[in-house]
Design brief:
By secondary structure, the chain is of the alpha+beta class. The protein is built from 2 helices and 11 strands. The protein has a 6-stranded antiparallel beta sheet with strand order 8-7-6-9-10-11, covered by helices on one side. It has a 3-stranded antiparallel beta sheet with strand order 1-2-3, with helices on one face.
Length: about 170
Amino acid sequence: MTGSDDVLALGAAVNEAKSAQGGSTGGAFLIDEYGRILVPGGSGTNDDVFVAGECSGSLRFHNAFDGNEFDLYADTDLRIGDAWNRPYIGVRYQLSKADELYFWEVSPAGSQKLTPPRQDASLVRALRLIRPYGPVRFLLGPGGVAITKAPPLWEPRYAGRLDLTTWFPKEALE
């Protein structure tokens, strides 16, 4: 990421969350569709995820290959089905073969399908333009940017933006 006080604060929040859970600093974290910074549990062997804080605004990175700077989730010039030529990262969700968006939760108590309060019909249509049939795995990034992979080579594709008003409620930070 390009250097700034905000990047340093993000790194410090991730390291603090990892240390508080008994893990070592550095390593994996993810930013969800609401901008929450998600950090895996300290042991790395369980399914615990902790919210280290929240962020907003663009996620700017330096491209070491061409020297340019880019916003990881900028999508103003993308249309549904366009190639996603950035890292394929985000929170994983599913679209069923019956066109239902959901999250598959796995916990020590078992697994279950969780559906949002309302279905985002526009996102379902966009995913079906890219993958006309069958179940579809897709990723959501900050602001609800949706990406999925498409055959025949399973390359990442832009699928639009989720309408966050239809989605799972944002959990309050404790």
